[in-house]
Amino acid sequence: MEAGGQVFEHTHFQDPAGPRDSDVLRRLSYLTHATIKKVTSDIERFSFNTAIAAIMEFTNGLYKAIEEAPDAFNTYEGHEAIRSLILMLAPFAPFICEELWEEAGGEFSVHTQPWPEFDEELARAERITLVVQINGKVRERLEVDADIPRDEMEKVATSSDRISSLLQGKEIVKVIVVPGKLVNIVVR
User: Fold this and answer.
1) Nearest to 76 by CA among 118, 110, 28
2) Which of 4, 141, 142, 178 is a plausible cystine mate for 113, CB 3.0–4.6 Å?
3) Residues 6+ apart with CB under 8 A from 149
């Protein structure tokens, strides 16, 4: 990988022998690119506390990936995740990141490297948690495809067993749909 005109050493990150868990690698790649996107946006808005929170969530996701597939960090996706973590953390913890960069095989200073870039396609979630509310109170959370159309969101929400039982005998006054986030059903 090019980094600040220098090649980032791959000495610690060779592809493992044997089969690769593509589901873990796909999630790792999504997590990496979504975090880069979030942290970049937060830093540009001077929201440093939320940038650090996103880095902490990313770290927790990396721990989970290690538990699921320890060899995942011997792949390109794992290498990219670790490299990105160090680069995003560097403005907040400069001294330890300098040490981590060197330990990971990076050349020169971590602070001379370009900011990691995200791929919009890889940063897009495949699944989301759809929140279903009745009169503003959360009554259900459903896993759905991220690109679900607005009308389909309403159908999925109202056809849920839990929601349909809560709606029995009530008149639906209005259904408010926030694409990709929630469905609020107003009843009397």
Assistant:
1) 28
2) 4
3) none
Tokens for 57, please give them: 């969530």
| 20 and 80 belong to one structural domain | yes
The whole model's pTM is what?
Answer: 0.66
User: How far is it, in rounded angstroms, from Cα 83 to Cα 10?
Assistant: 11
Structure token pair of residue 100: 């981590």
Taking residue 161's Cβ as centre, other Cβ atoms within 10 Å add up to 8
Taking the chain (188 residues) in runs of 10, the rounded mean pLDDT of each run is: 39 44 83 95 95 96 88 87 95 95 89 91 83 92 86 88 90 90 90
Bridge partners, residue 144, by sequence = 128
Q: What gap in Å lies between CA 35 and CA 54, rounded to an integer? A: 6
Q: Round to whole Å and give the CA distance between 13 and 82.
A: 10
